[in-house]
Write a structure and sequence with these properties.
The structure holds two protein chains of two kinds. Chain A is an alpha/beta fold. Chain A contains ten helices and 14 strands. In chain A, the strands form three sheets. Chain A has a six-stranded mixed sheet, with helices on both faces. In chain B, 45% of the residues are buried. The chains are: A alpha/beta, B mainly alpha.
């Protein structure tokens, strides 16, 4: 109960319901098994098994030091796994040269040459990746840097650097985008814009793996989640399944505060599962165990009316990704 | 690898970078020409035996002699530049960004070194041409006949001087790159490189003469000078090649085996 929150305002972007269309027979874009990375005595990633279906926006979630960046670095051939195997776009991660030209990535912090302009940096990295026909102006426009492309990178703000990093990741129109904390350093407006951008990129039938500490951000854009803790997976699957797996019910507020205790007593006596929190009652089940919000709402209303209590608000409980994540890392794997 | 070379040339070939390089080459030419011509006499009087006599300047190679003498002092500058440029690739994360686009990391290192050496060659050519022109202007003041400079031997000497300088530059570049790859930090790599090739080799070589014949910095200086009284040009080239090969090997092994974590 302690990990639920009352309903909040609707999200700016709802997670696209792509999970329904995910075909388990289609080769995943990323599939790793037993992936492990040790640095001396410290284990950064421990026996990671994960599978990322094609065409999803996957959120990669985990606390600081949980192994997200190391895992991404292994997928990108930057870090050699201590053990385990896997494929990216169907090619072994031991041969990153076979697939990296189809992958775009922003990992750790953006890294460019300070003395070059944004446009020159993009051209240079396009040359190295053999994407000589790159539309630099188009990429800059895509990330909102169209009017700053001729400025030196060293004059960019952190947010602009982050955007240029995303633009560089898009060079070559990659099939898989790996973005490590892409909203780092962005102001709220920038966060919203990048979030929308990531959503748009995914709709172009491109798979995206994006890590972030901001779980509400991932909840809004991701239709697939990979949750790791201590270097191991605690959940992987559709976002909707994870959120739906949380407790359901209604948050009830009365017109007058003293009525809350009356209503709680009435509902408890009638066999409802009731808890009080933050000046409201949280009702998770009707007598008999049903948590259907419509039936539950009607039953609560009837009981309140009979007891002379005026219900001010009835809101469906909304389990957030943060709630579920905390549940999982406290309670073990799912 | 050609992609990395092209990218490096893209970076160095910008108007601003070219302008700086050309100005540096012209400044070098002015300093080298005036120093060599003003100090030229019947014998070489400098302590380290470097410089030119009036007879040297009147010979077929006289037109580029100032370039050759001046360049022998420029090796350390090349060394420092390579350490700085290459180490920053690691400390600022651009090597990581490159490795995500060219996973064969050997190609990145070799491509960057070749790209920078091509730039160095271009700067060298400009510096040599400028030195030749300035030498032409200064020669009459010293009563030097320049007719031999325009002979086939003169042309051959010009190519020879440029080749010798580039041999030395390549050696310094590879050793500088190795330090950059080992330390992956510009300040640390520069401090180590500066301390070794500067004070350490100089101080030790003063009390231990063999140092002049075995230390990489002394050998590369000897290569760029076309040989010294302590070590012949051939021996200097051979030993420098060994050092350069070891440096390249260390760089490539480290860059392939190490994780890219910064």
């Amino acid at each position: 109960m302690g990990c639920m929150t009352p309903a909040s305002a609707p999200s700016v972007l709802s997670p696209p319901n792509l999970s329904a269309s995910i075909d388990p027979n289609v080769q995943p874009v990323v599939s790793v098994s037993g992936l492990t990375k040790r640095y001396g005595q410290r284990t950064a990633v421990s026996g990671l098994d994960l599978r990322l279906p094609r065409g999803v926006v996957a959120g990669f979630v985990g606390p600081n030091g949980s192994g997200k960046t190391t895992t991404m670095a292994m997928l990108l051939g930057l870090v050699r796994p201590t053990a385990g195997e896997g494929t990216v776009l169907g090619r072994s991660i031991t041969e990153p040269g076979a697939y990296l030209h189809r992958v775009g990535a922003l990992i750790e912090s953006p890294a460019f040459y300070g003395s070059l302009t944004g446009a020159e940096n993009l051209r240079l990295f396009a040359t190295v990746g053999r994407h000589d026909d790159v539309d630099v102006e188009g990429l800059l426009d895509t990330v909102g840097l169209g009017d700053r492309g001729r400025d030196r990178y060293r004059t960019y703000s952190l947010g602009m650097k982050q955007r240029l990093g995303i633009a560089a990741a898009l060079i070559g129109d990659p099939e898989l985008l790996i973005l490590d904390e892409p909203t780092n350093g962005l102001d709220p407006q920038g966060v919203r814009e990048v979030r929308a951008l990531v959503g748009e990129l995914a709709s172009e039938s491109r798979s995206v793996l994006v890590s972030s500490h901001d779980l509400s951000e991932l909840e809004q854009i991701c239709d697939w989640l990979l949750l790791i803790d201590g270097g191991s997976v605690v959940y992987q699957g559709p976002t909707r399944d994870l959120l739906d797996g949380g407790p359901r019910g209604l948050a009830v507020a009365t017109e007058h505060e003293h009525e809350l205790a009356i209503l709680r007593s009435v509902l408890t006596d009638d066999g409802f599962a009731v808890d009080a929190r933050d000046g409201a009652l949280v009702v998770t089940a009707a007598p008999g165990g049903s948590s259907d919000p419509v039936a539950l709402g009607a039953a609560i209303n009837r009981n309140a009316f009979a007891a002379g209590v005026t219900v001010a608000t009835l809101q469906p409980l909304r389990t957030t990704l943060e709630d579920r994540f905390l549940d999982l890392i406290r309670g073990g794997t799912s | 690898m050609t992609a990395v070379i092209r990218a490096e040339l893209q970076r160095s070939g910008r108007r601003r970078s070219l302008l700086i390089a050309v100005l540096a080459a012209l400044a070098f030419a002015a300093i080298a020409s005036t120093s060599v011509f003003s100090s030229a006499g019947t014998t070489i009087t400098s302590e380290n035996g470097q410089g030119a006599t009036l007879a040297d300047l009147a010979s077929a190679g006289g037109g580029t002699k100032a370039f050759a003498v001046g360049a022998s002092f420029a090796g350390f500058v090349v060394f420092v530049l390579f350490i700085g440029l290459m180490a920053r690739e690691f400390s600022e994360g651009t090597f990581r960004a490159l490795a995500m686009r060219e996973p064969r990391r050997v190609r990145i290192i070799v491509g960057k070194v070749i790209g920078l050496l091509v730039v160095a060659l271009g700067v060298g050519v400009v510096a040599e041409l400028a030195t030749f022109v300035l030498s032409l202007a200064l020669a009459p003041g010293q009563g030097i006949d320049t007719s031999a400079w325009f002979s086939l031997d003169g042309l051959s000497a010009a190519f020879g001087d440029l080749g010798t300088v580039m041999l030395g530059v390549t050696g310094w570049a590879l050793i500088g790159t190795a330090l950059a790859v080992i330390f992956r930090s510009a300040p640390i790599a520069l401090a180590v490189g500066f301390a070794w090739a500067g004070p350490f080799e100089n101080i030790v070589s003063r009390s231990w003469e063999t140092g002049n014949r075995v230390f990489p910095g002394r050998l590369l200086a000897a290569v760029m000078s076309g040989g010294t009284t302590e070590v012949s040009f051939g021996r200097a080239v051979a030993l420098s090649a060994v050092y350069a090969a070891v440096a390249l090997g260390v760089s490539l092994v480290l860059v392939v085996r190490r994780d890219v974590t910064s």
